[in-house]
Amino acid sequence: MTTASRPAPPPIRTHKDGRNWVGKSIRRLEDPKFLRGRGGYIGDMTLPGMLHVAVLSSPYAHARITGINTDAALAAPGVHAVITGAQAAELTDPLPDFGPNPAAHTWRCLAVEKVRYVGEGVAVVVADSRYLAEDALALIDVEYEPLPPVVDPERALDEGAPLVHEDLGSNCAYERTFQFGEVDRDFADADVVITDRLRWRRSGGQPLETVGAIADFEVATGQLTVHTNSLSFTSYLFMVAGTLKIPANKLDIRPMPAGGSFGSKLFATKPAVIAAMCSRAVGRPVVYLEDRIDNISNCDHHGSDRVYDVQLALMRDGTMRSIKIDTVDDYGAYIQFGVGHHGNALAQVVGPYRIASVEYRVRAALTNKNQQGAYRGFGSEVNNWMLEQMVDKAARELGLDPVEIRRHNFIRDFPYFIPTGNVYDSGDYDGVLDKALKLAEYDHWRAEQVKAREEGRYIGIGLITAQERSVFSATEFWFWFDTPGAPVTSMPESVTLKVDATGGITATLYSCAFWGNSPETMVAQLVAEEFDCDPHDVSIVYQGSKNGLPATGPGGSRTTVMLAGAVEGATAKIKAKARRATGYMLEANPDDLEWVDGGYQVKGSPEARKTLAEIAVMLHLFKHSFPEDMESGLEESKVFDHPYTTMPSADRKDLGVFYPFMGHACHVPVIEVDIETGQVSFLSYAAVHDCGTLVNPRSLAGHIVGGTAQGIGTALYEEFVYDEEGQLLTSSYLDYLIPTAIEVPELKIGHHETPSPWTPHGIKGGGEGGRMMAPAAINVAVNDALAPLGVRLTELPMTPDRILAAIRAARESR
Amino acid sequence: MKPPPFRYAAPTSVEEVLDLLAANADAEPRVLAGGQSLVPLMNFRLAQPGFLVDLRLVEALTTLRTERDVLVIGAMVRQSAVERSPEVALAAPLLVEALGYVAHPPIRNSGTVGGSLAHADPSAELPAVALALDAELLTAGPSGTRTIPAAEFFRGPFTTALEPGEILTEVRIPRREGVGGYAFVEFARTHGNFALVGVAAVIEMEKDIVTGASITLSGVASTPVRAAAAERALAGTSADAATIEVAVDAAADELSPAGDLHGSTATRTDIARSCLRGGIQLALSRAQDRR
Fold it and tell me: Which candidate from A135, A291, A676 shows the least CB-CB separation from B4?
C-alpha cells in the first residue's frame, strides 16, 4: 500500500472549550467502598452449599503422564469429586486460544497426556473446604515418565530439540521477517551501524488478589452463572461457552472487582472453566481461587521473555536511518494470544524518531514454562527498552549528547505514518523533553555526577524518550498471517445511560469491572461533563454478560477513550430525545433550543427553560403530553467502535492503522550504583507524560506511579527463574522479589497535553505508560553510572549478581 | 497453601509444654512461638507437624529483665517489645539495631527473639547477634535445664543443639553498657526481605587502640560465623583505613558462601566484604564517639 492509497483518516474533531469536569482531579468514586473493605471480591462471596477446588500441579517441566490413581483422594474426608486431565478433556473442549495453530499446540484446562511445565494442572479435587481439597491432592498418585525439558528459547529452536508439542513438529510456533520501507537502501546509505544483543527476562503482573471464579450450574435450567474477576467482557465470551460445550446464551458471566490485574486478568478463562466444569459435575456452586503458587506458576500470564539482536543504522551526526530487529520470544508451553505482543511493538517500533525503514524478524519459541499472557505494556515496553538501549549506545559510540541525539531525530509533523503503517495522531516531543529536563534538574545532576565520580561514586542519569500507544485494534492479532483464521475487526465498548424520573443518571458498563483502575470515576466525570451534574451523583452499575452489549474490556490502554466515545454517543441520543421533548413542553422549535447548564432553553430567552429533571419526569410519567411516537423513559445505549482502524495491505508491507492514539513520555531517573554490592538506589526520578487531554490528572499520576514501580521491578528485581531442568525457582514472594514502597522513590510527575484529533475531548490512553518507560530509563541510568568502568548491562533484571558479574568481567578484561 | 491437619494445645507452663511434647512425640510435635516462620512453612506443607504446642500462654517465657550483669529475654518476648525496650537499648543496642532489619513491624509484633534463634535460619539476623554478644541460651527438656553458649547452639541450617522434646526458654546476654561501639549492617535485595549477608560487630577501644572486637556474619555459611581473622587483624591496632582493609580481606578470604539465584559465591563474598567494612567502620566510629 502506498501513502496515496491510504484510506482517509476520520474527520478532525473540534474539542469543547471550557470543560468543567474533564481535567479535574476529583476524588475517586471507587474509593469509599474499597477503603471500607466493602469491595466484594471473590474471597468475600459465599453461595449456599459452595464447595472448594484445589488443583494438583505438575512437579515436572516435561513428562508423560502414564497413570493417575485417584481412589484414595476420592475416599478422603469431605471430597465430592476428583477430575483428572483425561476426564476434563471429555467434559470440556480446549480453552479459547488465539494462537497460530491451536489444533497443534492444544491448550486445555488440565494436562492430558503429558505435562509441559512445572505448575501445569493435572487433576482437581472438589471438597468441602480448600484445606480438605489440598489434603486430598496429596493422595492422588500420578505416574510420570520424565522427558528432557526445553528451557532456553534459542536452544528450543535448534534442530533435534525435544518437542513441547509433537503435533506442531517444531518448537517454533511462529516465524516471519517483515520489511517496512527501503531497509537495504537505508543501511547502505548509513555511516555507521550500531549492533547489540539484548536480553529481557520474564516477569509478570502481581495482583494482590489472584484469579478466581465462582461457578453455579443450575441443573434444572442448564443455566451457568460464573462470578469472576477476569473475563469481564462480552465480545468473546461465546468462546468460553464453547469450551464448556454449552450454548452461549446459557452462560452469564458476572463481573467482580479485581484486586489488581495489570493485564494479568485479561481474558483469564482457565479458572472459570475449571470452576464451571466442577460445578456441573457436583451440581453445587464451586469456587476456584488460585493461591499464590497457583498464580505464579500457572496463571498463563507471564510477561515477555525476549532475546534481541539489533542493528541500528545512523549517520555520523546521529540521524537515524533504519533498524533491523531480530527477536526470539520465549512464549512458554502455549501461545494463547499469538504474537500480538509484537503487534504492540510494531505499533511504535521506531519510537518518537524519524527512522525511515524497519526490518522485524520474530520467532516465537515454545518451551517448558508457563505461557505468556498480558502484562502492562503487552510487549511494547520491551520494544521501548530495546530501542532506547540502542539509541543510548549510538550516542556513546558516536560521542553525541544523549539528549541531543534524541531531539535531533524527533518526529514533529503529525499525523505521522511510521514505516509499519501505524499512525501517530499527534505529539509534542520537544515540549515533553523540555519539561522533563527542567523537572528533573538535569543540568544539576550532570554536575553532581562529575563531582561524584571524583569521589569514586557512580551516579547515573537515565534519560529516555519513548512512546505510549493506546487503544488497540483487533488487526494486530491476525495481520501476522497471509490467510488469517479469524480476521476480526470489532473492538467495541458500550455504555447505557439512564436518566430516571428525578433526573438522576445511572451509567451501565459492560466490561471493566474494577481492576484497580478508575472506570467509574472516568465515566462519572465524562457524564458530568455532558450533563453538567456532579460526578459523585452519577451512579455506576455493571451488567453481566448475558444481557450485555458488545464490550472488549480493559487492555491496551483503551478503557478511557472507548468509554468516552460510548458516553458521548449515548449522551447524544439522550439529548436528542430530551431536546425534542423540551420542544413540546415549551411549544418551541427544537432547533431553537440550546443545552445550557443542565437543561434546554430557548436561544435568546433563557427564562424559557427545562432542566433535565423536569424533562425526565415528563418523559417517564406523562406519555400523553407527547406525540404518539415518543417512547416513555429516557435511556439510551451506545456501542462505540474503534474510531480509527484500517486494514493491512495484502503483502503486509503496510499493517494499516491499528494503534493510532500515541502518547509519549520522558523519564529521567537518577541512580547510584554501589559497585561493591551491586545495589542500585534512586537519588531522583522525574517523569513527564503526554496522554492527550487529561480526564483526571491525579488518577493518571497514580497510573504513572504504579507503572513505574512495576518498571522498577522489571528493571531491578522481578524475574520468574526457571533452572536448567525447568524447575521454577521463584514460586513465591520469598524469591520472586517485588520492590516495596522503600525501594520505589517519590516521583516528580509532569503532565503535558497534546490532544488527539480523533478521540472525544482529545483523550489518549495512559494506563501503561509508567512500565513502558521505567525499565528502559533505569537501564540507561545504570549504564551511565558504570560507563567509567567500561561496564554496560544488556540484560534485565539488573540484579546485584548481574551487575557485580559485569563489573568483575570488565576488570578481568583490562 | 493450606496446612495439613494437626492437633493443637496452648498450655500455660513449661512443665505442661514438656509433658505434651513427650506425650505426642510420635506426632513429630513442634512448638509454636510467633509463628512467622513455622506457619508459612506449614502452609507450604514443607513442615507437617502432627501436634503444635503453642507457647503464647506460658507466662514464664515472657520475662524481660536485667540482672546484675546480664540481660534476660524470655523465649516468648515479642521482637517489637525488645526493640522498644529502654533496658535493651542500654544493655544490648546491637540487638535493637539488628531487629530493625527483621522483616517488617507487623511481623516483629508477633515474632519472638527465642523463635528466631531456635529456627536457626542461616540468613537470620538474631543468631549472628547472639553469637557476637556471647549470649547464652537456656533450655528445658526431659532431662532438665541446660545452658548452651551461642557458639555451640547453632549446628546447621535450621538445626540447633536442642534435643527432641527440649525447648528454648531464655536468652541471657552479657550487659555492655557504656562499653565500646556496636553495629549491625546487612544487605537484602528488598527492604525487610531475607538478607544475603549480615554483619554484627562490637568493638572496644582504649586510648585509640582496639582492645576487643567481636564480629560475626550471617548468610555466608550454614550457621552464623565469627570473623575471627578480622577480629585478630583489628586487635591491638588503631584501626586505620588500611588496617580495616586488611581485616576485611582476611575475613572475606575465609568465606565461601553457597551461591543461589540471588547471588553467586563471588557476589556474596563481594557483598560480605562491603558489609564487613560498613559494620567495622560504624562500630569503630561509635566506639570513638563514646570516649
Answer: A135
